[in-house]
């Protein structure tokens, strides 16, 4: 009897282990297939960019970096990289600065119309860009911003997402902390600079990465703003069919790969913040 | 806060402040100032955001609504048109077609995205070795701009050298009319859209699955529930709020479909992939009527709001039933 259970238990455990093993194998298989579907096309893009041909070529022989050499020595293409970087960095820095200031006021100050103003901003969070697109374009044209960096940057700073995110965070800072600083003689400026800003480093990083990625990849607005070739950003340049690169597929693919590099580096360095950004996007609604 | 004081925009009250402090000696003035709070200190914090928001979101939205009741152009001058634009939009057969195209796109892309990204999110939430690598690879498409995604998929389906086209025609023996048949083109745009958003939405679902209370799962397991039952009866109901968020985001993005149309089909073949947003763009910026484009964008907004509202209220009432 006792020997039966003694032999029975390992058998059950073994069965359970093989089942768990099979399950893990199935999960691995599913993950590999999904990874392949997601990353495979990007790998093919990279392979195609390493060929010097009119048509896309996915073979692994005769690889060359000629396209990259040519692009990175081309003044127009370099200008697109500079434009993309400049616009995305400027929008990111200014968004974070403007939003953290406003978020502090909405979270920790009392003033007339505070709740109404905030609620109006919040209500526009889900407002699609199409609902404001035409007048924003007319305004930009009125202000002489078309085909200028100001047109690419300034209208992109208006969104309420950052204020909402940072306000949520700043509200969580205990009032007693701010009160202590006030007793020590600090005004709102001092409290903001010495207490709130250092505490906000994490959510500000999330907002910064979210904003940078969104603006690096954005298409419709820069398409409307950039009238001349030298004001285009990378996505607009790659998508425009009458440029000197458009006819050469492998050149375009190399340009596309170059446009991915900063995102890939950013993702590798700040993966956690990306996921934070995704969650921020969820909070958004 | 009384409605009167609440309705005063921040900047307007700031502008009236000096006059008010002049009469601050009276009881009424003092009470009013106390109710308004101090406007001096918040102003430097708020002024940039309020100006930007007011100029580039609030005012443009109001102006869009105003434009819908006008005719003419900004150069020749606008005149009041009453409901003419709305009547024209309702009669415009091409606008009807763009709505049908957008509807077909939504019917495909919404369920596809929800089911696939939920499944991938569940997959990513399982604790196996190497999941970090899989997660990074699965997030890859979300790092690309839509322009690059469109370029990649156009390459994959190219009739001469595209690996995907070679596979379907060579191995499966199918001659897929990727972008030359209207319905196929819309389905294909849906698949590419799904591909670009897998990383983003599945991470949302992953976070939701990771948040499911393990005690509840263990309790169900002790009660004899199998893996499938736990998934259907416990995990899925618990992640419903996230599914709802994804649903609304996918819906809004689906109505706005533009970038992919620009890089992959330019509205073709014929007008088969004219989406609503593409048509608005054509009207506003390629020699159409600006007031008419504004009217279409507003009708589009109303439709989006109604659909999103239905999704939200339905899932709310279902949640109440539970």
Structure, briefly:
The complex is a heterodimer of chains A (285) and B (322). With 285 residues, chain A is an all-alpha fold. Helix content of chain A is 74%, strand content 0%.
Number of domains of chain B: 1
CATH architecture term of chain B = Orthogonal Bundle
What is the terminal-to-terminal distance of chain A?
62 Å
The stretches of 5 or more residues of chain B where confidence is low (pLDDT under 50) are 1-25
Helix content of chain B: over 70%
Compute the gyration radius of chain B: what is it?
Answer: 26 Å
Largest interface comes to: A-B, 94 and 98 residues
The number of distinct helices of chain B, counting runs of at least 4 residues, comes to: 16
Written as H for each helix and E for each strand, in order along the chain, the element string of chain A is HHHHHHHHHHHHHH
The figure for the number of domains of chain A is 2
CATH level-1 class of the largest domain in chain A: Mainly Alpha
* Rg calculated over all Cα atoms of chain A: 26 Å
Overall mean pLDDT score of chain A? 88
Q: What's the multimeric state?
A: heterodimer
Which geometry of chain A do the CA atoms define? flat
> What is the third-level CATH name, the topology of the largest domain in chain A?
MetI-like fold
Number of strands of chain A: 0
CATH C-level name of chain B: Mainly Alpha
Q: What's the shape of chain B?
A: globular
Q: How many extended strands of chain B?
A: 2
């Amino acid at each position: 009897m006792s020997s039966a259970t003694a032999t029975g238990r390992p058998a059950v455990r073994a069965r359970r282990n093989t089942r768990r093993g099979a399950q893990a194998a199935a999960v691995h298989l599913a993950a590999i297939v999904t990874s392949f579907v997601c990353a495979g096309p990007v790998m093919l893009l990279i392979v195609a960019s390493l060929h010097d041909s009119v048509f896309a070529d996915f073979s692994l022989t005769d690889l060359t970096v000629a396209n990259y050499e040519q692009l990175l020595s081309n003044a127009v293409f370099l200008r697109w990289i500079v434009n993309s970087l400049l616009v995305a960095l400027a929008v990111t820095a200014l968004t974070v600065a403007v939003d953290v200031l406003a978020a502090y006021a909405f979270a920790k100050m009392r003033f007339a119309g505070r709740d109404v103003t905030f609620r109006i901003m919040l209500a526009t969070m889900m407002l699609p860009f199409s609902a404001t697109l035409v007048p924003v374009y007319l305004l930009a044209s009125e202000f002489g911003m078309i085909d200028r960096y100001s047109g690419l940057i300034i209208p992109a700073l208006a969104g309420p997402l950052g204020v909402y995110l940072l306000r949520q965070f700043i509200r969580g800072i205990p009032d007693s902390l701010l009160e202590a600083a006030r007793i020590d003689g600090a005004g709102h400026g001092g409290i903001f600079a010495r207490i709130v800003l250092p505490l906000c480093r994490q959510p500000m990083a999330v907002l910064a990465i979210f904003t940078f990625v969104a603006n690096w990849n954005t298409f419709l607005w820069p398409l409307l703003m950039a009238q001349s070739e030298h004001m285009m950003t990378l996505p607009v340049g790659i998508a425009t069919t009458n440029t000197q690169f458009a006819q050469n597929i492998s050149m375009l693919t190399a340009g596309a790969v170059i446009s991915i590099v900063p995102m890939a580096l950013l993702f590798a360095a700040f993966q956690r913040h990306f996921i934070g950004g995704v969650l921020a996007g969820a909070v958004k609604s | 806060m009384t409605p009167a004081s609440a309705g005063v925009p921040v900047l307007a009250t700031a502008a009236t402040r000096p006059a008010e402090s002049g009469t601050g000696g009276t009881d009424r003035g003092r009470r009013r100032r106390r109710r308004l709070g101090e406007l001096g200190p918040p102003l430097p914090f708020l002024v940039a955001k309020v100006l930007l928001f007011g100029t580039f979101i609030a005012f443009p939205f109001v102006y869009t609504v105003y434009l819908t009741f006008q005719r003419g152009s900004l150069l020749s001058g606008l005149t009041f048109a009453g409901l003419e634009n709305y009547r024209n939009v309702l009669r415009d057969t091409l606008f009807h077609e763009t709505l049908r195209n957008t509807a077909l796109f939504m019917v495909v892309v919404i369920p596809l995205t929800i089911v696939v990204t939920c499944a991938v999110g569940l997959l990513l939430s399982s604790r196996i070795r190497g999941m970090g690598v899989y997660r990074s690879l699965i997030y890859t498409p979300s790092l690309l701009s839509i322009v690059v995604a469109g370029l990649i998929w156009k390459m994959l389906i190219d009739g001469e050298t595209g690996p995907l086209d070679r596979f379907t025609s060579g191995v499966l023996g199918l001659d897929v009319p990727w972008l030359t048949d209207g319905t196929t083109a819309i389905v294909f745009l849906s698949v590419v859209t799904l591909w670009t958003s897998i990383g983003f939405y599945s991470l949302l679902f992953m976070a939701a699955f990771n948040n499911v209370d393990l005690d509840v799962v263990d309790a169900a397991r002790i009660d004899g529930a199998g893996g499938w039952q736990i998934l259907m009866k416990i995990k899925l109901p618990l992640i419903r709020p996230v599914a709802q968020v994804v649903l609304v985001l996918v819906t809004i993005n689906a109505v706005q479909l533009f970038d992919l149309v620009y890089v992959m089909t330019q509205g073709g073949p014929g007008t088969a992939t004219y989406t609503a947003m593409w048509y608005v763009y054509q009207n506003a910026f390629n020699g159409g009527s600006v007031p008419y484009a504004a009217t279409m964008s507003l009708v589009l907004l109303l439709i989006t709001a109604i659909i999103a509202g239905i999704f939200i209220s339905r899932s709310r009432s279902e949640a109440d039933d539970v």
